[in-house]
Design brief:
Lyase, Ornithine Decarboxylase, Chain A, domain 1, TIM Barrel, alpha/beta, about 25% strand, 12 helices, eight-stranded parallel barrel
Amino acid sequence: MEYFPYENGALQCEGVSLEKIAEEVGTPFYVYSAGYLRERYREFYDSFEGCERIVCFAVKANSNLGVLGMLASEGCGADIVSGGELHRALEAGIDPKKIAYAGVGKTEDEMEFAINSGILMFNIESRQELDVLNKVAGRLGKKAPIAIRVNPNVDPKTHPYISTGLKKNKFGLPVEGVMDDYRYAAKLENIEVVGAHCHIGSQLTQVDPFVDATRIMVKLIRDLRKEDINIKYLDFGGGLGITYDDEVPPSMKDYAEALKKEIEGEGLTLVFEPGRSIAGNSGALVTKVLYTKQTEMKHFKIVDAAMNDLSRPTLYDAYHKIVSVKEKVEGKVTADVVGTICETGDFLAKDRELPDVQPGGYYAVLSAGAYGMTMASNYNSRPRAAEVLVDGDSYFIVRRRETYEDLTGPESIPAKYTK
């Protein structure tokens, strides 16, 4: 199904005109298709039919409560990397037994929160973290379930900033010595070893790196079982890519068939942590053209969304397709689409041929459902955008636009500086 079609001359999200939302909510705003999110989650889950599996949506990709609540209603779990993400997942109604906690820097307070919440497991990144978790669990009189994140040194063939499974990356423990790490963990009084975890990177567009990593993990699990360290869960992480421009990622069916072939007969419950592959193409950032500007070198479209709203183009030189909210616009122009931030790096597109939308008109920046709002900031003291969830012919404001008062609310001026 097409979730962002043109109908009656206007770009829609499902059955709602984006121009209508813009006029009623203001710009910039993020808009997400509940239908797309629902379909992608079901497709991912159903692709692994015949396997015991838990799909844990990566909250870092899109942490909006409305989005998480909709996914929770489908039975989706959560992959979290902070106490704040755990709070969001629980607030959204996600079953704690479907929550996996990753990340290299978990604090004692966060560990205690997660243990008391009864999460599925911690994905452990270092021996020191194991020792701290063992201490926290002992203080609570409980056992903490863990998987060790294994760094298999597999090249994911993706952008170096989102590669996570190479020896030079900060994540995980090297596969060469991880048997000793598992032996160490198994002897800790307040640790229960239940799983093995691996995540090699994001926006992968080939199946082979996943297969290579899976083979390494299956061999490790077999070796662990020979020593009576019984692994129940194999957590593959996430990383399956999407189409932003001309990428052709593997289908979920091809991805699933390749992995199922490698783990057949191992008696494992599979855990997945997809984020971008579920949410990326569910969303768009809608922005208004404020001004046009022609210089000797460039044509600029100055819009009211900026790098603080969508940082991926600035951070990764990432491509997001940009279209007009009106289907028919007179003329095309090659332009830089830039925001209002006081940085030369503030752009959404460079040297892009676009419909020549004039001030007061709207562009939609597509494929913005993942790593958009979650990476937004208040740089230049800009209030963050609104978020809207569309389901069928209805839409819901699932995060109101911030106000100036929101910007200064947590702050105070010491009394000695006030009259």
